[in-house]
Every structure is written in C-alpha cells, then in structure tokens.
UniProtKB/TrEMBL annotation:
InterPro entries: ABC-Tungstate_binding, PBP_domain. Transmembrane segments: none annotated. Residues 29-257 form the PBP domain. This is Sulfate transporter. It comes from the Bacteria. Gene3D superfamilies: Periplasmic binding protein-like II. Pfam families: PBP_like_2 (PF12849).
C-alpha cells in the first residue's frame, strides 16, 4: 500500500499518479476550497498572500486561511473545522497526530524568535549570553514585558523559556508582566506604546512597520529556533475533510517548487522563512 501522502519531494503531477487519482479527480479537485488553520505569524508576514495565488493558479484549489494562534488553530482542527493545519509548536503538533486528529506531521520551514524592546534597553539584555538570562534580567529590573497570552506557538515558547529559568511570570509580583491576549502584530503595537519588551517571531518583526525606537535586542540562541509543521486533518475522524485537495496542497508545499517559493519570499530584501522539508 502506498503511503497515504507520498509527500517527499514530489511534483504535483507525480502526486496525482502515485495516489491513483487520475484526471477525473484532478478535475473535481480543481473546484475545491480547503480551509487551512494557521498562525498569525504566517499570515501577518504576507507569506500566504505570496504562496496561495501561485498554488491556485496551478491547481485550481482555493485555500481559505483562518489565522489564529497555534493553540486556537489546533482547537479548530480538533473540532474538524479545518482540512489542513500549519502551526509552530512541534510538541503540540505531535500530540495532535498521536491522538488521531491528524494523519502525519511534516516539517515545512523554519525561522527563529527574537527578543525586541526599546533601543535604550533598560534591562541590559544585550549584554546577556542566553535568552534565559535575558528574561531573568527583565524580571529582575521589573521592566515591562508584553506577552501574547493567547496560547499561540510564540506564547508557548515564551512560557517554556521562563520555566527554563525557574520562573512563572504569571504568578510574579508587580505589574511588569502584561498579557495582551492578542496576535503578534497587536502585541508589538502594545510593546511600542508601552516601551516594553516582547518575544516575536522574526517574520512578523521584519514585516512590522511601526517599529519606532524598537529593535532586536537579543537573538541567536538555539532555544529561539522556530519550526513550522504541516498536517492534514484525519478524514477517518472527520469524514467531511477534503482529504485529496488537502494532500495536493501539502504535497505542493513540500515539493521542490513549493520549497523554492517559500525561500524566495522576502520583505525589505530579507528572507523570512527557510524551507526544510525532508
């Protein structure tokens, strides 16, 4: 039996042949619209506005993106309200698959997180050696830190980094730690207004226009690695999932063409995502 997805580095044409779908399925699938539950970072960065028109041109498949935090995207998919999931918290993604909600998870691309704040750097995080130390200095100085507080992949990583230092900022005294309960763009706006620190994915930061005196103050720690994965929602659990169109989309993302398209997307001359499908 052929692997359900036959994903690795296949062209769209070979996907259709290997899957045994034939020209009739292709004609049917060109009329499809699939729902992709994904993150605010992929949407705010402009990546989907760049990728999806090309995918539709080649396949006729319309991709409707619901851009929310990773936690909310996972919830949508667990409720059967999406055909494909593309988020950035690997542990949660693997749990999603192991519990039967997704068929298989694939790496698709990565970038990293960065700690941004006002250029006068009141906590001196530029002088620290690790991101854990940087957060420790923010807490020690009681400097304002803006957390997304929305169970997104960025929020999950932020809380993991605090925990690595033995901290739980939600229970800390003082008003220095603020939760916005919103996406990355809105959280950056709040950080600018309050002159506070925040953790951002690099793609959203590069795309963000209202930087004012804010800048990247810490980057490069291996703990800031930010992997994105893609999963087709399990049609055995949710029979209404448009499995074949979803498979075509995922295969395209992981194909040589999809990966090169991801790599070619730039803002202000800077590449936002590094493709890494295996």
């Amino acid at each position: 039996m052929i692997n359900r997805f036959v994903f690795r580095a296949l062209s769209l044409a070979s996907v259709l042949v290997l899957g045994g779908y034939g020209s009739t399925l292709y004609a049917d699938e060109t009329k499809s619209e699939i729902t992709l539950a994904s993150t605010t970072s992929t949407q705010n960065s402009g990546l989907f506005d760049y990728l999806l028109p090309l995918f539709k041109e080649q396949t006729g498949i319309e991709v409707h993106v619901v851009a929310v935090g990773t936690g909310a995207a996972l919830k949508l998919a667990r409720n059967g309200d999406a055909d494909v999931l593309m988020v950035h918290h690997k542990t949660s993604e693997e749990t999603f698959v192991s519990e039967g909600y997704g068929v298989e998870r694939f790496d698709v691309m990565y970038n990293d997180f960065v700690l941004v704040g006002p250029d006068n750097d009141p906590s001196g995080v530029k002088e620290t050696e690790t991101i854990v130390d940087a957060l420790g200095e923010i807490k020690a100085k009681q400097a304002i830190f803006l957390s997304r507080g929305d169970d997104s992949g960025t929020n999950k990583r932020e809380l993991e980094l605090w925990k690595a230092n033995g901290d739980n900022p939600k229970t800390a005294s003082g008003s220095w730690y603020r939760e916005t309960g919103s996406g990355m763009g809105a959280t950056l706006n709040t950080a600018v207004a309050m002159q506070g620190y925040t953790l951002s994915d690099r793609a959203t930061w590069i795309s963000y226009k209202n930087k004012q005196n804010m800048e990247i103050l810490f980057e490069g720690d291996e703990r800031l690695f930010n992997q994105y994965g893609v999963i087709v929602v399990n049609p055995e659990k949710f029979p209404h999932v448009k499995e074949e169109a979803a498979k075509i989309f995922v295969n395209w993302l992981l194909s040589e063409e999809g990966q090169s398209t991801i790599a070619s997307y730039k803002v202000s001359g800077q590449q936002l995502f590094i493709p890494d499908a295996k």
